[in-house]
Design goal:
heterodimer; A: 202 residues; mainly alpha; disordered N terminus; B: 302 residues; alpha+beta
Amino acid sequence: MLVVMSREADVSAFPEEPGASASTPQDLLERVATGDQAAFSELYDQLAPRVFGLVKRLLRDHSQSEEVTQEIFLEIWQTATRFDSNRGAAVSWILTMAHRRTVDRVRASQSSRDRDVRIGIRDHNPDYDHVSETIEVRLEHERVEKAMSRLTELQRQAVSLAYYGGYSHSEVATMLKVPVGTVKTRLRDGMIRLRDEMGVAS
Amino acid sequence: MSDRNDDLAAQSGAYALNALSPEEREAFEKHLASSSETRTETTELSDTAVALGMAIDPVSPPPALKANLMAMIAQTPQLPREVDAQPLADEAPGVDVAAAPIAPVTPLGASVSLADEVSTEQSRSAQSASAAVPSRAETKAQARWFTRPATALAAVAAAVALIVTGGVVADSIGRASLDQTSFASQQADQLAAINAASDSQRLVSTVAGGATATFVWSAELASSVVIVDGLEALSADQVYELWYIDESGARPAGLMDAAEDGPTWRVLDGDMAVGDVIGVTIEPKGGSDAPTTDPIVVFETA
């Protein structure tokens, strides 16, 4: 069910499964923008496990994750008309929006979050040990893990807490007991390092 | 000012990770519109964040989620394309939202009035959103960063959450099937296709007991769906059965149970032909080969 997806923005690097004639998310999203419901259905089949996996990673709660995933896809439907492939790949557009919507939801349930911050850092790294179903996902794991290992400890913790935990920079600062300004700098340094290690360029 | 901008530029990482507060996010996006350097870096860091997301194990959502979504998009209009967007030589002519294949609002029962409000609210928000965009540069940054439409959609998302928790279709389909996943998904696809068909038509009728039943069909697709709002639950040894009725008699068109919450719907098995009469009866569990009771509702498509 899961289709091999591009790792980053460059859609020309989009690897297709051998012999598969499946449309790319890019094609599908452009068709969705014309009101094509069949294209939406196919786009959902390709990307829903990615989106749901991401949402669930941050929110953990199953039913909330379903709700947010549904909101995300409805937003994709409504705003596909605003997608412009000149400004980035469809998968990036969707996952970026999915992360933001999920973080919005995480922040909305702030009370439980305050407790987390007080308790301290939970494990917010991706489940590197988990043996993935597909080679593609495992390659992504390895790629990210390798790049992450090049960061300083503080950079790595800050980036992981922000991305995989959905914590704001001030929450990250509280948890890591460093000033907010330092966290902002570490997030930027860390992300630039990751970008360079993973060869992400726009 | 340059100190201020340096400070803002330093937030690119936090922005890409969605770690800024809403106020900071907004200030940063204003800065994005004015600095191409920051814009490039932010784009790259944002794509780097996507790579972090790609390292997360995919998890398949439950099939009912897709079924819900397909039912929702069938009655949810899309935002108009931005007139102010960067012109492209090969750009397709702007799609008029009214011309997009959106079916007349299909009454998915309780969610209908809500959905209507949502559409109205959304088009209003969309208008005010486009009116509020001050410059092309900002529009460009907005388009990449996607915030403005999202803000406009906040109300929609909130309303949708209500619909979602209603569980529009989750319980009404699939129970009779061995393969719930593909059945629910097929049903949802067909529901969407019927609603999207250019020739789709509908009939509304009242069911004995007060429920409202709607029949939507497309002759081109030879496909149709029955949607009932407020369908009474039956005892465990009974089931609703759908029928195509013509001169030669009644042909079974599928079974359905009343949804626990929200409207019940079922895409009919087999091909539907114009002129067919569609009926729903109450049958013993497992269904019958021919109706054993009088129909609770009948639609005449001729």
